[in-house]
């Protein structure tokens, strides 16, 4: 009896252990899927951030609040900054912010552009700042936002005949590359820290957040789950495959050498796919993601304005 009882107790313990192992395995497997699902959802629904300064408080510049509507009905919020009266008007610049950002982050760019004689339109992409929408897609639907901004400029009688440039960074730069490839109304483009392919950018971001080992496990799962959440394949977004269509219009590509968000090799990949005869490149030494305008402020402003002055058609041409 004692031996049978011992054997029975052992079997019960074994069953209990087996149950714990199976239950633990299921929990681990569920966790392995839940973490990427939460990450993917978070990337697609970034918390909103809003500007604390505007053109007047940052630079003493008069501006107008504008409302636009993308072709799919999303309402967009922006600022229009008229050109300064004291200098010759050189053109119009549409200024595009990056992921998890807002138009206020581009005020340093506005300062350089305004002093040089450019009118400017700044806006928040969908699901960012004060614009409508609840989800960002990193370049699937956002081109509609930039297209709405271009429409707004071209439908304005005072601006329609002026040369048009897009000055952009990060996600905004990737979107600008996609739009400029097909929208010939854009005369020149400045793209700071654009990703060549979205999958590479998201893997770099996950690695910076989690470390290489954990990111290597979660990034592929986040890709699959993210695609299912989107019900579209955002990982196929690849400005590098479209950039070649921008020429002969001028293009200025730049990126910091210490970029921790977009793979540093993106600059080389984009340049290699572009028409080098119409593309300028600047690798900003030591700058982190979109920080070049802060760490190399004067040189950044000088290069930006010089590029636009030689690239945009003169009004009497």
Give a verbal description of the structure:
This protein has 10 helices and 8 strands. By secondary structure, the chain is of the alpha/beta class. The chain has an 8-stranded mixed sheet with strand order 1-2-4-3-5-6-7-8, with helices on both faces. Strand 3 (91-96), helix 3 and strand 4 (118-123) form a beta-alpha-beta unit. Mean pLDDT is 85; it is low at 13-30.
Give the helices and strands, then pairings:
Blueprint: H1 2-44, H2 55-59, E1 64-69, E2 75-81, E3 91-96, H3 107-115, E4 118-123, H4 143-154, E5 164-169, H5 171-180, E6 188-192, H6 198-210, H7 212-230, E7 251-256, H8 266-273, E8 279-284, H9 292-295, H10 297-311
Parallel strand pairs: 3-4, 3-5, 5-6, 6-7, 7-8
Antiparallel strand pairs: 1-2, 2-4
